[in-house]
Amino acid sequence: MNEDIEFDEYCDPYNPRKIKYDDILAASRRIAGAVIRTPCTKAHMAERLGMDLYLKQEFMQYTGSFKERGVRNTLLLLSDEQKKFGVITATTGNHGIAMSYHASQLGIPCVIVAPVYAPLNKVTKCEQMGAKLILYGTNIWESKLHAMSIKKEKRMTYINGYDHPNVIEGHGSIGIEIIEQVPAVDAIVVPCGGGSLLCGIAISAKHLKPDTEIYGVETDKTCSMVESLRKNERIKMDMPSTIADGIAVPMVGVNTFYNIKGLVDKMIVVKEDWVARAIMHLVEEERFVVEGAGSVTIAAVMAGLFPNLKGKKVVCVISGGNIDTTILARALERGMAAEGRLVKFKVTVNDRPGGMADMCALLAGIGVTLRDLVPERAWVKGDVFSVELKVIVETRGWEHTKELIDQIKKHYKEYYFQDMNEHPEKTVGNRRGPCLAPNPVCMQK
Ligand SMILES: Cc1ncc(COP(=O)(O)O)c(C=O)c1O
């Protein structure tokens, strides 16, 4: 194994490292001043969600995510020799941006290897921050293998973004800050990819306030930690395309898995539809622009997966804000559709002059905004003087949509509304409490 090109001495499956609180505290002092002590303030959505809810705003870091903490700590601990030869990593995102920025601040040569399909907004930032970017491989494993061979050849240091012990220690500084900022916190909810954020926070927060409950959140497409905990070994999973690309890690870390077992109270799996809605609500209610991975904690709260935390003091970590504008636009649209504010329907109207205008007047009369209207004449059965309209409208929400449906039903004989049987709001808060069970893993049904 040790001769293997993939071997990373800091993340050795045969010798996992125990992460200690004292090293987290030292990291927190080491990086102070170079990373932002981010705000942790009461959420505007707290009352609506029935919790004394606080948001730890890590997306406010200079490069847009918490990843700066671990990277800065690791770079500062390198020997002079290591600093001279430089650092390298394989990444699809935030770790790469953070490493590029801090390496350039400290004058350390830096190489980022990313798969050719990595999110463009993220990898191009690495170059802008001063790193050398190499696009190689169709997935992160191929990129990592390539990075490892460069590391060997050029005597660089490989920094694993979710498993290097000094990275985990740096991320642990967030736990210290949370306990200082919200001393009476009952529970901390943390996004989980490779596990370094969750691991670092769990160790520091539990050390300072042992009764703090710690929850990790993955989506139904990125649940490698959940599956690994279930099987009690690190499982390698396929990662389909996901709105939460920051936490799409096929296999969790050696050190993170070793330290998380028995420490984290529960892992929660939330469906990706809720992530789009969380992104939308963070924009609308908090004025935060947050990426998918950064919003999974709020998504899980909104989905009603924490009935046990009603009325409690809860901190959700909002871990990153590097979202592509096209993905943000799609997430907002999906969020609106999921909440009945963007509605698609078909209605057959009279095709004589004024027929379509009447339908538009009906919409205007109840304050519904017309987004799109496509008339269909050829593939319509029955009366040749009728036309089927495919309509997309904006409403104020479920109640308003119901008014629209009632009006269309009242005035027309043929109509069809998409997905109106599903009313997601009804599920919130009424679900049986999945987090009350002793099982360490909770899947959203
Ligand atoms: C925004 C964001 N949130 C959460 C995570 C998960 O962090 P970890 O891999 O340490 O679990 C990442 C990882 O890159 C991330 O970019």
Q: Please, what is the CATH homologous superfamily of the domain at 343-425?
A: ACT domain
Strands, total number: 15
* Radius of gyration, taken over Cα atoms and rounded to an integer in Å: 25 Å
SS class: alpha/beta
Shape: elongated
Strand order of the largest sheet: 1-2-10-7-8-9-15
Which compounds are bound in this model? pyridoxal-5'-phosphate
Summarize the biggest pleated sheet.
Answer: 7 strands, mixed
Mean pLDDT: 92
For the termini, the CA-CA separation is 40 Å
CATH class of the domain at 343-425: Alpha Beta
The share of residues in extended strands comes to: 15-25%
Helix content: 40-55%
Low-confidence stretches: 422-439
Number of helices: 16
CATH architecture of the domain at 343-425: 2-Layer Sandwich
Briefly note the CATH topology name of the domain at 343-425: Alpha-Beta Plaits
What can you tell me about this protein's structure?
This protein has a domain of 83 residues: Alpha-Beta Plaits, CATH 3.30.70. The protein is α/β, with parallel strands linked by helices and 445 residues long. 40% of the residues lie in helices and 18% in strands. The strands form three sheets. The protein has a seven-stranded mixed β-sheet, with helices on both faces. The protein binds pyridoxal-5'-phosphate.
Question: Gist?
Answer:
With 445 residues, this protein is an alpha/beta fold. The chain is 40% helix and 18% strand.
Write the layout of secondary structure elements.
Blueprint: H1 21-31, E1 40-42, H2 46-49, E2 52-57, H3 67-76, H4 80-85, E3 87-90, H5 94-106, E4 110-114, H6 120-128, E5 132-135, H7 140-154, E6 157-158, H8 165-181, E7 187-191, H9 196-208, E8 213-219, H10 224-231, H11 254-260, E9 266-270, H12 272-286, H13 292-302, E10 313-318, H14 325-338, E11 342-350, H15 355-365, E12 369-376, E13 386-394, H16 398-411, E14 415-417, E15 441-443
Parallel strand pairs: 2-10, 3-4, 3-6, 4-5, 7-8, 7-10, 8-9, 9-15
Antiparallel strand pairs: 1-2, 11-13, 11-14, 12-13
Helix pairs in contact: 1-3, 1-8, 3-5, 3-8, 5-6, 8-9, 9-11, 12-13, 12-14
The chain binds pyridoxal-5'-phosphate.
Residues 65, 93-95, 162, 191-198, 246-247, 249, 291, 293-294, 319-320 line the site of pyridoxal-5'-phosphate.
